[in-house]
Write a structure and sequence with these properties.
mainly alpha
Amino acid sequence: MWMDPSGQGAKEDVRAVVKTAPIQLKMREQRLRWYGHVLRRPEDHPTRLALDFEAPGKRPRGDPRKRWKDVIKRDLAEVGATADDALDRTR
């Protein structure tokens, strides 16, 4: 169990024994929870303003940087939810 050279089997075995979810799922859950919290803030609140902030000027060359908003959009798509679902606290 603990001597798996790849390390994957051991992690999965430990996770099964301890009954915890993979860290990626927990991180997605927390991001979406925070997103819902930010969306429920008033329109003039600093966290809400930061959500829609676009930095002026040109971006550097190369691939676009990963933005928090893009990660949230991907998370919502993976769980089959919308921004309106994030506002609904009963779900």
